Records
---
Amino acid sequence: MLTLFHAPGACSMGIVFLLEELGVDYQLAPVDLRTGAQHAPEFRQTNPKGKVPALRLDDGAVLTEFQAIACWLCRSHGAPGLWPESAMAEARLLERLDFIVGSIHARGFTFLAMPQKFTADPGAQDALRALGRREIETGFATLAAQWEAVPRTPDRIGPDDAALFYVFVWARALGLALPGPLAAHADALLARPAARVAMQGLADH
Ligand SMILES: N[C@@H](CCC(=O)N[C@@H](CS)C(=O)NCC(=O)O)C(=O)O
């Protein structure tokens, strides 16, 4: 059975969401980021990067990095047609996914919510928070402007939806407004039964 190393409220909830949507059998291995369990030698043996998500496969191999895990799950466990056939459609999907995880999450939310990871200087922390907020706002505006061009099949959840899911949860928790089409998509994703499972434990964080 697949084992997902996960912390409630972390980006790994996007992978829980996807596992639920795909109907894959899995178990969760909790990693308590608040107590620094990601730095403990036992977890470092699983993921030397000290981050969640990490996914242990049936043969013992461990996949890391949100995009890699989400794409592997959709390609190996998704219904026919979930993964794009054409090279261009695949490239566009990867382009969106990397923008959500690599820019909106990694620069936007990390700077906004955790400036203390980068500097102890309170003034510099404020500047990082402001930078993070701008990255999120411009990132969401960019996604909204391209929204019409994105092929969508209602009820078919792909890797980009899994990434959108967790940044939407974070945006709503921080009271950040989402532009029109994204707000509607957030409502739809958050209403799905998989969202309830993925958000378990969130209230404690
Ligand atoms: N590039 C990684 C980033 C994952 C990441 O930032 N995970 C955070 C939780 S959202 C984490 O594990 N942080 C623990 C730490 O940095 O100590 C990915 O895409 O999977």
---
Amino acid sequence: MATLAGGVAVITGAGSGIGEALARLAAKTGMQVVLADVATARIDAVAAQIVADGGTALAVTADVSDPASMDALAATTRDAFGDVRLLVNNAGVETLGFAWELSAEDWARTLGVNIQGVVNGVRAFAPAMIAAGEQAFIANTASVGALGIMPVQTPYIMSKHAVLAFSECLRLEMELKQAPISVSVVLPGPVHTRIFTDSLGAGDAVSQYHRQQMEGMLAANGISSAEAASRILPQVAAGDFWVSTDAEMTRAYAAGRAQALLDLQPPALAPELAASLQAE
Ligand SMILES: NC(=O)c1ccc[n+]([C@@H]2O[C@H](COP(=O)([O-])OP(=O)(O)OC[C@H]3O[C@@H](n4cnc5c(N)ncnc54)[C@H](O)[C@@H]3O)[C@@H](O)[C@H]2O)c1
């Protein structure tokens, strides 16, 4: 964490959940923190609290799905604080529904935020980070879902597989260029946040039921956002590629996926999931 102290952090989706907790922890670690989110009132409130606690924070309204908005975020950050040491492309939305029933808008929004948002963050910030020539860090938030499959979460799961593949290739590109930028992919397990409550879609009974189940699961089994941040940030600072909130769960998902691919298993519903969703 000492490598982060004194540097500048930019965290997207910092108005809630994991992003908010990462922003608070980065500030506590001695970073100057830029909080970016579409939820202006929430980032304003969090930034004000960080400053009241003696930290340095700036709230900037930004939509990660909009390249111009991310370029503006990069310019505002540079003007305010200079070079960026840590970029966390954390903003994400959950979307529930059958693939063919979700609206074109919900599809575009999900892929726009979850995939293009990460790409836009890298396009806006990486050139200056590389040019600065200093050790810096880019962390892209996927999910353990990047190593799994799940019906009625298709746009979300698809987007997280994409973030994982993007991050793997980005790590190789940094190596190819011998750039001092460490790339990490964050694969959180359950964290108790508003993500399912705010989810898009959920217009059908099965998805509504699934949303309820997932909200209950996060409330019962999810760790707090603060705990998640305290596990995530040291791994990013250490330069780890695979960053988990629950290393055992990540390994179990990876092993399950690897075995399914090795065996060329066709996708099949786990019996408990089928019973639960088909009961609806
Ligand atoms: N909570 C979990 O269990 C969990 C598990 C795995 C992965 N994740 C991932 O972690 C990340 C954070 O999720 P969370 O659970 O803290 O969710 P959250 O809903 O609490 O916070 C997400 C934040 O992103 C912001 N946001 C949404 N669209 C945006 C946009 N276009 N531009 C900028 N900001 C935008 C929201 O306003 C919100 O403040 C997401 O990428 C999510 O997919 C979460």
